[in-house]
Amino acid sequence: MLLFLARRIGVMLVTAICLTFVVFYLTNLPAKLETLAKTQAGTRISDAEVARWLDRHGYNQPMLVRYGEWLGVVPGWVREEPDGTIRGRCVGVRGVEAAGERCGILQGYWGHSTRFRAPVGEVIGARLGATGMLMLWVLIVMVPMALIVGILAGMREGSRTDRSLSTFAIASTATPEYVSGVLFIALLASSTVGLSPLLNQWGLMDAPVLFQGNARSALEGITFWNFTLPVMTIALYGMGYIARITRASMTEVMTQQYIRTARLKGVTFPNIVLKHALRNALIAPFTVIMLQIPWLLNGVVIVEVLFSYPGFGWTLFEAAVNNDIELLLAASVVAVIVVLLTQLISDIGYVYLNPRIRVT
User: Fold this and answer.
1) Which residues contact 232 (CB under 8 A, 6 or more apart)?
2) Quick one: average pLDDT of 150-163?
3) Collapsing DSSP states into helix, strand and coil, what is residue 176?
4) Helix, strand, or coil here: 241?
5) Residues 43-62: what's their mean pLDDT?
6) DSSP letter, residue 216
7) CA dist 62 to 47, 205, 217, 221, Å?
């Protein structure tokens, strides 16, 4: 196991370096840097002024050098202004005495956000906490519902229950978040259409809407009314895929020889499902569930923007729209780390779900 972990961690480090360099290269293309200069210094500046701005902020160096500075393996850039002022990557972080030192992500410095005017580490930390809470509630709702639907459908293949639940799973997966989210808002969070006007008319509620279509207030306090719609929008889309995988795995397990043997011995059907079939049937869904975590982290962009929930996805959208290079790079690092860690955890989880599987 230790040798397996050492090899996987080595592969993860190489993969992370390659992926972050690709993102760094794409976000530091000349056109992107020119847009950044005009965003910060003014859209009407000339090409010569753009070149001077990029030089003053250390963007005129070779790509590999700047990537090394961002990682923290190469000393940060230093510039001396005509008035004698010292500028540099590390100067703004540790003072003038740190000019020429290393200050990258390896030293804990993620850069400064041009969109939020704050250190990137603080922005990412706060937004990850908000998205982490959203992901937690989505998993609490999505995973049990998906497993129940998949297990019930796979227990008796071809039955009416199987067909009904499979149709529901396919329909939920085929409905994108931006469609279901808009439908939820129209039906449950609108004061002019949907259920809210009817409930008000019948005197069943005093509030103008049943649920809140804006989840920003959830940052101050999560309630059933301001967090249900974004959670259900994400959970509904993700649960269909998990349910289909669970159903296929359960169907395959129920046709195995040891299941037939248990039936011939007179074991009751509930005991066959719970004690013999369920553990082996959960191996494939476990992998899919683990892969849902990076999808939740990066795939909530639409939902967070739709419901105005300032989490990681909303921040990523703001960074992309405003060409915030440092924030985009930090978000890519977080996404890469989450993907690699969830894959490692899913591989290790195989061993505990099925002792016949060995890691070498």
Assistant:
1) 141, 184
2) 86
3) coil
4) helix
5) 85
6) G
7) 19, 64, 45, 47
CA separation (Å) from 284 to 135, 245, 288, 345, 360? 21, 7, 7, 14, 20
pLDDT tier, 231 (very low <50, low <70, confident <90, very high otherwise): very high
Average the pLDDT over each of 76-80, 231-235, 277-281 and give the range with the smallest value.
277-281
Compute the distance between CA of residue 353 and CA of residue 356 in angstroms, rounded to an integer: 9
Residue at 155: amino acid letter: M
* Torsion angles phi and psi, residue 144, rounded to 5: -60, -40
Q: Work out the angle between the directed axes of helices 120-155 and 224-254 (0-180°, nearest 10).
A: 50
The pair of three-digit structure tokens given for residue 88, joined into one six-digit string: 């540099």
Contact 257, 272 (CB under 8 A): no
Q: Which residue has the tokens 């967070």?
A: 304
Model pLDDT for residues 90-131, shown as the tens digit of each residue: 887 777 777 778 888 888 888 888 888 888 989 998 888 899
Determine the pLDDT at residue 359: 57
Which pTM does this prediction carry? 0.81
Distance CA 329, CA 308 (A): 23
Report residue 348: phi and psi, to 5°. Answer: -70, -35
Spatial CA neighbour of 236 closest among 330, 319, 303: 303
Question: What is d(CA 323, CA 113) in angstroms, rounded to the nearest whole number?
Answer: 10
Four-CA torsion 343, 346, 351, 357, nearest 10 degrees: -60
Which residues, including other chains, have CB under 8 Å from residue 280's CB and lie 6 or more apart?
253, 256, 353, 354
